[in-house]
Design brief:
Length: 519
C-alpha cells in the first residue's frame, strides 16, 4: 500500500529534493569542491543520489515511508562522497557511473498514472489508429482524429479500447513496446540531462520489475465524427516529428488537443536512427533498428563511424525529411480515400528539438505543400551554415517557434552558436514577409517562461520533481500549467492563420503578441 502511495504521489519526493538542492550548494562551494576535487560532476552526483534513493524504494519493497528514504539518502551520500575522489582520478570511470545513472532514471522514476487523463478542451472526442507506411521510407505512424462522442463514451470506460503507453516487455505485442514505450522518453530525458547516456530500451524492458501500463484517453479504431464523414467540415492534417531518441508517442496530450479541434494528427517514428527504434520493412521486417547514438566525446556513432556533429545532424535531418515526404504522399492517397474530408491546403507540421529542425527543413523544401510550421526548441545545427551566411534559408509559411527558458544552457548547444543562429533565422523569416507584398503570414517567436526542453512533452507530467533537478523542465509545481499554455499557444497560432475547422475558444486565455516577433 505504501509503495502504491509513493508511486502515485511522487511529489512527496520534494522533501528529498530540498535536501539535494542544499547539498548541491554545499558541494559546489569552492572550498568543499576543491577539497574533494569533483566539481565537474557535482550535478551528476546529486542525480545519482536521487536515483539511488528511488531505486532502493522500488527494489526492496519495504513499505517505503519518507523517513526510510531519508535514511537511505544519508547512507548513500556517505558512500558516494567516499567514492568521489576515485571518480575524478579517472574521468572515464565517472562517465561510466553516469551511464548507470541514466539506466536508473529509465527504470526507477515514479510515474503519475493520471498524466494522460487531462480533459481535451475542444468540441470533439479523440480516436487513435496505428499503422506502418510503405513508401520511400517505412515510418511507423499513429493517427489521432476527432471521433463520435456517443461511441467514445461507450468505449472509453474499458481499458481494452485505449492505447497503452508503457508495457514492460509484452512479448505478444513487441511493436507497442519498442515503438511506443515511454521507457524511451525517460532514456531521452536522461540523455539530455547527462549528454552521454545512450538509449537502451532492451535493458530497461527486462529490468522493469512490475507491470506499468498507462493508457491514452483515446479510443482505438473509433469512428470518425459525423461532421467529417458528412463533409460538413474538413480535417486539418498535422504531421509531428520528435527529437533525439524520441518515440512517436511523447506529446499525446498535444495530439489530443489538436484532434479535439478537428485536426487529424500523424505522429512519426523516424527511420534515420534518431528515434528510439523502428522497423525497416525494406530490409528486415522483424528486426527493430535501435537508436544510433552520437557521442559528443568521440564524435562517432553507435557503429564507430566518425562525423563532425554538424555533418551527423545534417544527414539525419535530410533522411527525416524523406519520412515527412512519405507521410505526405500517404495522406494524399491512402488517407484521402479512408477519411476523404482532409483539407491539404491547411497541412501543418510540428516538431520538437531535432524534429523542429526537421519540420523547418521540410517547410523550406516544400513551400507549396506545407502551409504552416511550428517548432519547439528547434536544434538548428543541421542548417547553421546556411542560416548564418544569410542565404535564402527562410520559411515563406506562417511560422511559430517556441523556445523554452532553460534549453539555451543545454550541453547539446555547447558546440555551436545557437542563439546567433536562431536570431538570424528569425530575421530571415520576418524579412521574407516584409519583402513580399502578397505574403500575409503571421510569424511568432515565443519564449516560454519557466520551461525546459521536456516541458512540451507528456514526460514532464510524470515526475516533475526529478526532471526539474536535471533542468529539463522548470518549476515542478508549474509543469502542468506550462504545458497547457504551450498547447494553447499552438492552437491560437493555427486559429489566427485559419487552419482549424472549428473556432478555438482559447480556454487558457493565453494570447500571442500582436506583433510578428517577441524577444
Amino acid at each position: 500500500m505504501a509503495v502504491k502511495y509513493f508511486a502515485n504521489h511522487n511529489e512527496k519526493c520534494t522533501y528529498c529534493l530540498f535536501l539535494l538542492l542544499v547539498l548541491k550548494d554545499i558541494l559546489s562551494g569552492p572550498q568543499i569542491s576543491g577539497l574533494l576535487g569533483f566539481s565537474w560532476c557535482s550535478d551528476q552526483l546529486i542525480t545519482l543520489m536521487l536515483a539511488s534513493c528511488l531505486l532502493m524504494s522500488k527494489v526492496f519493497r519495504l513499505g517505503v515511508a519518507i523517513r526510510f528514504n531519508f535514511v537511505l539518502f544519508y547512507l548513500l551520500c556517505g558512500i558516494i562522497m567516499g567514492l568521489a575522489p576515485l571518480l575524478t582520478v579517472n574521468e572515464s570511470t565517472g562517465r561510466l557511473v553516469m551511464k548507470l545513472v541514466g539506466l536508473f532514471l529509465m527504470i526507477v522514476l515514479p510515474f503519475t498514472a493520471k498524466f494522460c487523463t487531462a480533459e481535451t478542451p475542444g468540441p470533439y472526442c479523440v480516436g487513435v489508429k496505428d499503422l506502418i507506411i510503405k513508401g520511400k521510407t517505412t515510418p511507423s505512424v499513429m493517427i489521432f482524429y476527432p471521433m463520435d462522442k456517443k461511441e467514445y463514451d461507450q468505449k472509453i470506460t474499458s481499458d481494452s479500447n485505449k492505447y497503452p503507453v508503457i508495457i514492460d516487455g509484452d512479448k505478444s505485442n513487441p511493436s507497442r513496446v519498442a515503438g511506443l514505450g515511454l521507457t524511451h522518453d525517460i532514456s531521452s530525458a536522461s540523455k539530455i540531462a547527462l549528454s552521454f547516456v545512450p538509449s537502451n530500451f532492451w535493458v530497461a524492458e527486462r529490468l522493469m520489475d512490475d507491470e506499468q501500463v498507462f493508457n491514452i484517453e483515446a479510443v482505438v479504431g473509433g469512428n470518425l465524427h459525423k461532421d467529417f464523414t458528412s463533409r460538413t467540415k474538413k480535417l486539418t492534417p498535422v504531421i509531428y516529428g520528435g527529437g533525439l531518441a524520441a518515440s512517436r508517442i511523447q506529446p499525446t496530450i498535444l495530439f489530443r488537443y489538436l484532434a479535439s479541434y478537428g485536426c487529424i494528427v500523424y505522429t512519426i517514428s523516424h527511420t534515420d536512427g534518431s528515434s528510439c527504434c523502428y522497423k525497416d520493412l525494406h530490409k528486415d521486417p522483424n528486426k527493430f533498428v535501435q537508436y544510433n547514438h552520437f557521442s559528443m566525446q568521440t564524435h562517432t556513432d553507435s557503429f564507430g563511424k566518425k562525423y563532425t556533429h554538424e555533418e551527423f545532424r545534417r544527414i539525419s535531418v535530410a533522411n527525416r525529411v524523406k519520412d515527412i515526404e512519405t507521410v505526405i504522399e500517404y495522406i494524399k492517397t491512402e488517407s484521402m480515400q479512408e477519411f476523404q474530408s482532409i483539407d491539404m491546403s491547411k497541412l501543418t507540421v510540428i516538431g520538437h528539438s531535432l524534429g523542429g529542425m526537421t519540420m523547418i527543413d521540410s517547410s523550406h523544401k516544400l513551400p507549396d505543400t506545407i502551409k504552416a510550421c511550428v517548432a519547439f526548441d528547434p536544434h538548428l545545427l543541421a542548417r547553421r551554415q546556411e542560416i548564418l551566411e544569410g542565404s535564402q534559408f527562410y520559411l515563406k509559411q506562417p511560422t511559430l517557434v517556441i523556445n523554452s527558458e532553460l534549453f539555451k544552457d543545454s550541453p547539446f548547444l555547447a558546440d555551436f552558436d545557437s542563439k546567433a543562429c536562431m536570431d538570424k533565422f528569425k530575421t530571415l523569416c520576418d524579412s521574407s514577409k516584409d519583402t513580399d507584398s502578397n505574403n500575409k503570414k503571421q510569424n511568432f517567436w515565443v519564449n516560454l517562461e519557466d520551461s525546459g526542453h521536456l516541458s512540451f512533452l507528456d514526460v514532464s507530467q510524470f515526475s516533475p520533481g526529478p526532471l526539474a533537478m536535471t533542468k529539463t523542465i522548470g518549476s515542478p509545481d508549474n509543469a502542468s500549467y506550462v504545458m497547457n499554455k504551450n498547447h494553447s499557444i499552438v492552437l491560437d497560432f493555427m486559429s489566427r492563420n485559419n487552419l482549424l475547422p472549428v473556432e478555438f475558444d482559447n480556454p487558457f486565455k493565453i494570447e500571442l503578441p500582436t506583433s510578428s516577433s517577441q524577444e
